[in-house]
Design goal:
The protein is of the alpha/beta class. 43% of the residues lie in helices and 24% in strands. It has three helices and five strands. The longest helix has 21 residues. It is globular.
């Protein structure tokens, strides 16, 4: 499963942390591999088709991410053309 997450505030960061902590259990017990491949906040966005390193993904986005725009985010998401993708938008 490939996840694109818009919203990396308190709730979004908590979600990323839970995914990171539960990755091995989900993979072994549920045969579900979860890759977060795109994240964004109101200013920046960051993508990696192979999956982001969740322990520092938000910091990396803030340091080297592209300027955020929803049309550009959707364009990148569609351009990656990854199967089993989910878009999650966290509003706070």
């Amino acid at each position: 499963m490939n996840i694109f997450l818009v919203g990396t505030g308190l709730i979004g960061k908590s979600l990323l942390s839970m995914i990171d902590k539960q990755f091995q259990q989900l993979a072994s017990q549920n045969h579900l591999e979860v890759n977060v491949v795109g994240i964004a906040n109101s200013k920046k966005m960051h993508f990696n088709a192979n999956g982001l390193l969740l322990e520092n993904a938000v910091d990396q986005m803030k340091e080297s991410g592209e300027v955020m725009g929803m049309n550009d985010f959707f364009g990148n998401m569609i351009g990656l053309n990854l199967s089993n993708s989910i878009l999650s938008i966290v509003l706070q």
